[in-house]
Amino acid sequence: MDEATILHADLDAFYASVEQRDDPRLRSRPVIVGSGVVLAASYEAKAYGVRTAMSGGQARRLCPQAIVVEPRMPAYTEASKAVFAVFRHTTPLVEGISIDEAFLDVGGLRKISGSPVDIAARLRSAIAEEIGLPITVGVARTKFLAKVASGVAKPDGLLVVPPDGELDFLHPLPVRRLWGVGPVTAEKLGHRGITTVGEVAALPEGLLVAMLGGASGRHLHALALGRDPRPVRTGVRRRSMGAQRALGHRDRSAGELDAIVVGLADRLGGRLRTAGRVCRTVTLRLRFDDFTRATRSHTLAQATAETPAILQVARDLLAASGPIIWSRGLTLIGVTLGNLHDDGAVQLPLPFGRAAAGALDGAVDDVRDRFGSAAITRAVLLGRDQGVAVPLLPD
């Protein structure tokens, strides 16, 4: 049987941990990052029920003694870069899946680095000593089980799932531990009395497919049996990028929503050009008071990195979504750019006069790089609280 050689390394309460590291007064105290919407909460705050994406008001009611700090994205980015440098020093096989977590394959390193559990322990020590942050590591034979193990071991833990004990570990866990099971799917399964991974595994695949659809049913059935053949992939560029803004429960005017979309499209256009990418698909993501979600997307005929083109599509999607926005209570809005390609691999469009728009975007990017992101902005955003556009996880 294969050895457990895949590590899932996940920084604990990342943003809040960086704040506690950088300000000794915050250590061992409940910390909330973000005043309008909770972007992160320390484990001291989580003990009171504070959770990510919760409104700031609700979080403060749950934990009145919490210290609220505004996010410092440059500090988090710098910490992430330092952590990933330790990952790559540990093994060349690193697959980052977000700013604060990654898979590492340490197979074949036993003779030079020791067993996978030894490597995991040294990795945790190195990040604690060199970077000053707590990290949890799960070790297993597959990516899925390694990620589940790290989730169970949090915070600041290390858990190994031995190959001969995989199902004994997995099956007693709640169904929400399965990738792809959110509140809606968990509710569907719960209505049928299915609350654990083992109960999912005991169902015929055909019944899961009938309940949840083809792809989802087959996916969950395989995971419940511990099947996950995906290797750790390196050097794979993301297929999409996005940002979102939580709105709280206050009603927003059409002008406010438009300004938020302008801000999101503006940020994403800059990120796209910095990465040397172009996109073809623009997706508008919406979340409502009852936690249901909706998406609207449009695929362009020609790939682009021009902010005006991206913004126009996002505005059109917003306008088309008006009926559901005003009837259901919008609490979050996001924009995602998909079908990404390297900008040098895409044929230039005609007419070539469109290059002027790209030159303007480039000039704006240069000013912001030199003088800061607030040095130049769009007129519609002047005087508005733009909040924090939270990056969406890469696919």
From TrEMBL:
Top-level division of the source organism's lineage? Bacteria
> Where along this sequence does the record place binding of Mg(2+)?
10, 100
Keyword ATP-binding belongs to the record: no
Alphabetically sorted, this entry's keywords are: Cytoplasm, DNA damage, DNA repair, DNA replication, DNA-binding, DNA-directed DNA polymerase, Magnesium, Metal-binding, Mutator protein, Nucleotidyltransferase, Transferase
Where, subcellularly, is it found?
Answer: Cytoplasm
EC number in record: 2.7.7.7
One of the GO biological process terms: DNA repair
Site described as Substrate discrimination, located at: 15
GO MF annotation terms: damaged DNA binding; DNA-directed DNA polymerase activity; magnesium ion binding
Q: Which GO terms describe its cellular component?
A: cytosol
Task: Tell me the leader sequence span.
Answer: none
**Which reactions are catalysed by this chain?**
DNA(n) + a 2'-deoxyribonucleoside 5'-triphosphate = DNA(n+1) + diphosphate
Provide the UmuC domain boundaries. 6-182
**Entry's InterPro entries?**
DNA/RNA_pol_sf, DNA_pol_Y-fam_lit_finger_sf, DNA_pol_Y-fam_little_finger, DNA_polymerase-Y, DNApol_IV, PolY_HhH_motif, Rev_trsase/Diguanyl_cyclase, UmuC
What does the record give as the active site? 101
Kindly state what the record says about how the cofactor is bound.
Binds 2 magnesium ions per subunit.
User: Which family is this sequence assigned to?
Assistant: Belongs to the DNA polymerase type-Y family.
Briefly state the protein's biological role. Poorly processive, error-prone DNA polymerase involved in untargeted mutagenesis. Copies undamaged DNA at stalled replication forks, which arise in vivo from mismatched or misaligned primer ends. These misaligned primers can be extended by PolIV. Exhibits no 3'-5' exonuclease (proofreading) activity. May be involved in translesional synthesis, in conjunction with the beta clamp from PolIII.
Concerning PANTHER family, the annotation shows: DNA POLYMERASE KAPPA, DNA REPAIR POLYMERASE UMUC / TRANSFERASE FAMILY MEMBER
Q: How does it assemble?
A: Monomer.
What this protein is called in its record is DNA polymerase IV
